[in-house]
Amino acid sequence: FNETMIAELTTAFDRIDAHPSLRAAVLAARGPAFCAGADLNWMKRMAGFSDDENRADARRLARMLEAIHRCAKPVIARVHGDAYAGGVGLVAACDIAIAAEDVKFCLSEARLGLIPATIAPYVVRALGERAARRYFATAEAFDCAKAAQLGFVHERVPADALDATVARLAEALCAN
After folding, report:
1. Residue 6 neighbours by CB distance under 10 Å
2. What is the pTM of this model?
3. Which of 8, 53, 107, 156 has CA 20 to 30 A from 34's CA?
4. Which residues have CB under 8 Å from 51's CB, separation 6+?
């Protein structure tokens, strides 16, 4: 993601939250990956930012995650491809995660010498403290089976069943 996507997702989830007739939301992506995290060109530009500019950027990212997490409507993460770094944070901010069984997850920030402080509260809640500590520190990838075992994803399904599974869940949520 980058500053544009952060602004768009924040606005979208604020609108979803305020819309009285919506009963659920699905966070999905296009392309081969769910989300590979922050755009590297954006990160390079941020390296030249002042401390105040970096703090403001971190606050915007935190606000996006908060908008997803605090949305009054249940939010389903439809994870069709790999989720790395901030992409794991996006999944963690959602209420429910359904993933294709071939998906991999990785908190890869340590490889860049970074601490994923902004996504950490969501990841710790969704993954569990001990597992989060391991994956934050090692930057090991873990597969969908492990993610399900740890409770990070609620259900793993064949890729060709992902849309139908998410649709059934969304319908069930909307019926309540």
Report:
1. 21
2. 0.95
3. 53
4. none
Residue 154 banded pLDDT, cuts 50, 70, 90: very high
Distance CA 65, CA 104 (A): 21
Residue 33 has phi, psi (to 5 degrees) of -110, 155
Closest by CA position to 106, among listed 122, 93, 94, 89? 89
Q: What is the domain count for the chain?
A: 1
Residue pair 37/87 in contact (Cβ under 8 Å)? The answer is: yes
CA 8 to each of CA 11, 60, 141, 162, 170: distance values in angstroms, whole numbers, following the listed order: 5, 11, 28, 25, 22
Domain that holds residue 171: 3-175
Residues 153-175 as b/e (b if ≥16 CB within 10 A, e otherwise) read: bbbbbeeeebeebbeebbeebee
